[in-house]
Amino acid sequence: MQFRLDHAVDILRRTPGTLRHMLAGIDGPWVMNNYGEATFSPFDVVGHLIHGEKADWLSRAQIILDHGEARPFEPFDRYAMHDDSKGKTMADLLDEFEMRRAANLRELESLGLTEDQFAMTGMHPALGRITLGQLLATWVTHDLHHIAQICKSMAFQYKTEVGPWLEYIGIIPR
Predict the structure, then answer these.
(1) Which residues pair with 54 in a beta bridge?
(2) Does the residue 173 lie in any domain?
(3) Predicted pLDDT of residue 174
């Protein structure tokens, strides 16, 4: 499917509500446990998404629009949520994510982007040359990836409890 901003925004707008429906009012192992070493719990994922709203998608889009490849992106700290989320509850994180995403979507709309601008390039510190369209498409797929990761983490909590059905439940890591 070819990138279209209106299609992207359809998904980006829904992510906070999806996460709220999945995670609000749930505590303990459902939100705090992960599915193995160096994996994210649902709590970690929401914190990570918040950090992305603060330091990734729109700030990088603006760098492309203002500087192109002349100013490379700052490296993104994929684990900043561990410090940023300390002392917060899942409710706190869901509220903050919803607020930041709404603000970022308003800002994205205010840019008045055209299809021609999606071909503008920037410089990623690890990936090299990327386009604005690729960045925005990745914002969407990043959301979907982390929604799936939350489901994977939650399903993993019943890995032993599903017994022989584990063979049929592909989302649970073996």
Answers:
(1) none
(2) no
(3) 82
pLDDT tens profile 112-132: 999 999 999 999 999 999 999
90 in any annotated domain: yes
Class of residue 87 by CB neighbours under 10 A (exposed 0-12, middle 13-18, buried 19+): exposed
Instruction: CATH number of the domain at 24, please.
Output: 1.20.120.450
Burial class (CB in 10 A: 0-12, 13-18, 19+), 70: exposed
Is position 114 within any domain?
yes
Residue 131 pairs in a beta bridge with 121
pLDDT at residue 78, rounded to an integer: 92
